[in-house]
Specification:
Elements (H helix, E strand, L loop, with lengths): L12 H10 L1 E5 L4 E3 L7 E7 L1 E7 L6 E8 L3 E3 L1 H6 L6 E4 L3 E7 H8 L3 H27 L2 H11 L3 H4 L2 H7 L4 H14 L1
Antiparallel strand pairs: 1-8, 2-7, 3-6, 3-8, 4-5, 4-7
Helix pairs in contact: 7-8
Length: 190
């Protein structure tokens, strides 16, 4: 499988194989939702092809804000919410035609309840997600907008060829104009 954007930073082969074996392949067209913010979260999956964005609406401006991406070769879903059946904290939407091996939160809980090794897997996933979220939060405080853009390019080298400027800008909490200036400066320095 070709990695278009980046690589998953942890190897959870067992979970990938579980999704492929027990899940159903679901195809999404650009703009179709896997989960909807505020509605019970049910699904988790492995992205075999495509890309998803995690979107929330601003409290006062109702503007779309992209908080995360899941790329080909990575997992997609509101992990804690799908396990508990709580409302999804974001809308998860395909950014291009995508295929996902999807399992339900109920299936995931059954996997994790099998034995101690499976329970350890649950802990590893939770720790990984916490580390990602914490790193992203810290980057908003310690990195300049340009540094955040450069960090994203290192994680996902092909992102600029596949996603629109406004999506990348939203993820970085920048305006498209700010990102355009940063991209221009980076391009002319190299």
């Amino acid at each position: 499988m070709e990695q278009k954007f980046g690589t998953n930073s942890i190897d959870i082969q067992v979970l990938r194989e579980f999704c492929e074996r027990e899940g159903k392949v679901v195809s999404f067209q650009k703009g179709e939702q896997m989960e909807c913010e505020g509605k019970p979260s049910v699904w988790f999956g492995f992205v075999a092809k495509g890309c998803f964005k995690y979107v929330t609406k601003g409290i006062s401006d109702n503007k779309e804000h992209i908080t995360w991406f899941s790329f080909e070769g990575e997992f997609v879903g509101d992990y804690p919410s799908c396990l508990s059946g709580n409302p999804s904290l974001t809308t998860i939407e395909a950014m291009m035609p995508s295929n996902v091996f999807m399992v339900s939160g109920k299936q995931m809980k059954q996997l994790f309840n099998q034995d101690m090794t499976a329970m350890e897997l649950r802990s590893i996933i939770a720790e990984h997600l916490l580390t990602q979220a914490r790193s992203r939060y810290l980057d908003f405080h310690r990195a300049t907008p340009r540094e955040r853009y450069e960090l994203l390019l290192r994680r996902c080298p092909g992102i600029v060829e596949h996603l629109p400027l406004n999506a990348i800008a939203s993820f970085l909490n920048l305006t498209p104009q700010q990102l355009s200036r940063i991209r221009k400066a980076v391009t002319f320095e190299n």
